[in-house]
């Protein structure tokens, strides 16, 4: 039996987008995944749409529809901001996989039951197809994109809390333009969408303890939460009626251990999961796929840089997870109305993981060699690292900051014009880059974004 060079497990955005990102690098992966079983309504940012355009995802883009207006009430202030695109995830994920297939990706619909590392290298993957037939597939490299269902190989590095999201749909809602609504309330926060057909979907996010206190009665908890809301009921109207059954999903931000090695990688939720208040999982899956593709290319075609590629993915996932958790905590701390309520006490006190916890106080800027993406692969280049930019910054505009700083270190009195000539950029570009380096040397001000603001 011949071994597949790259086998991707899963059928969500991480799997389909990674498979598409590998094709232009001359790598043809095989994908084995089971389609998402339960429907879920989620919001997508413009940046996801930009990624879909970049990948030419015709099917997924066709099902997006117009952008929804977004209204939020948080910490006593109300804002209407740039909108989001609202999708039903099982349909969206299927469209994305259709796009991958249209790009030439080989997809097998099936449920993976076992991934076994074999002693002479590579993996054996056992899976069952849609007709119940069992298969064994051999692969040199496995990329885990099975989301939170991906088996855990070691204890999580950081898993600060667990919440539960309960969703219910309503009919007979007053007709509105498409609008999404975010609102904080005593027991948690809510996110919903109201569409022009008189339908609405409303997700409330509460502690698991609150659910337990109500004997796990989803309906009772949802109704109690709706009773505590002030903004969203204005949109739902007084005649709205619950339809269908309620669904519950766990929200469990986590940075997993054992995410990357030379032949096994984790991408998307299988690598780290955000709180949907501050980070947008589909965007993270897309950006994770875009980062994993050059790393896989390096592991296969430039194995001398394999350690750099693995370190690049490690640093990236750790830093992004930390910054999303910092953003979530800033948002939770911004809301002080119900400071003593159990939900808010828990969400304002959770521990951050490194490197965000390392703080914003010590503004040491160093020049370090780090892995960066260049020509579809990962190579080591000098970048400027600071507490606020733990992964390093390579360019400011056209200016290579590594070259700029080393020139200034070697020639402390060098003029802007001489730098401009040495770096082949304009004196204005040099001035902007120098100003940027100065801001890196100052402590960053802590600040929260709007809830569910899209990065
Ligand atoms: C309550 C809640 C609300 C959220 N809201 C938003 C939002 O509004 N916007 C947003 O961007 N993100 C949101 N997210 C996050 C988002 O759902 C995930 O981050 C995103 O789906 C991650 O994509 P993924 O491809 O990594 O994993 P997933 O989408 O989980 O995909 C995993 C895939 O693996 C398949 N699979 C699982 N087990 C097996 C197996 N044994 N064999 C084969 N295949 C398997 C699954 O069927 C699925 O296709 C929310 C999450 C939660 C919990």
Description of the structure:
This protein is an alpha+beta fold. It folds into three domains: 4-68 and 79-154 and 253-322, FAD/NAD(P)-binding domain, CATH 3.50.50.60; 163-251, D-Amino Acid Oxidase, Chain A, domain 2; 366-440, no CATH class. Helices cover 33% and strands 29% of the residues. It contains 13 helices and 20 strands. The protein has an eight-stranded mixed β-sheet. A hairpin with a 2-residue loop joins strand 17 (366-374) and strand 18. The longest helix has 29 residues, at 306-334. The mean pLDDT is 92. Residues 9-15, 33-36, 42-44, 93, 111-112, 145-147, 149, 165, 249, 251, 268-270, 276, 280-283, 285 line the site of flavin-adenine dinucleotide.
Query: Given the structure, what is the number of helices?
Result: 13
Bound molecules: flavin-adenine dinucleotide
How much helical structure, as a percent, in the residues? 25-40%
Largest sheet: 8 strands, mixed
* Principal-axis shape: globular
Report strand order across the widest sheet: 3-5-4-10-11-12-9-13
Number of strands: 20
Structural class: alpha+beta
CATH-level-2 architecture of the largest domain: 3-Layer(bba) Sandwich
Distance between the termini: 44 Å
Share in β-strands? 25-35%
Give the number of domains: 3
Q: CATH topology of the largest domain, anyone? A: FAD/NAD(P)-binding domain
Average pLDDT metric: 92
Alpha carbon gyration radius: 24 Å
Question: Low-confidence parts, pLDDT < 50 over ≥5 residues?
Answer: none
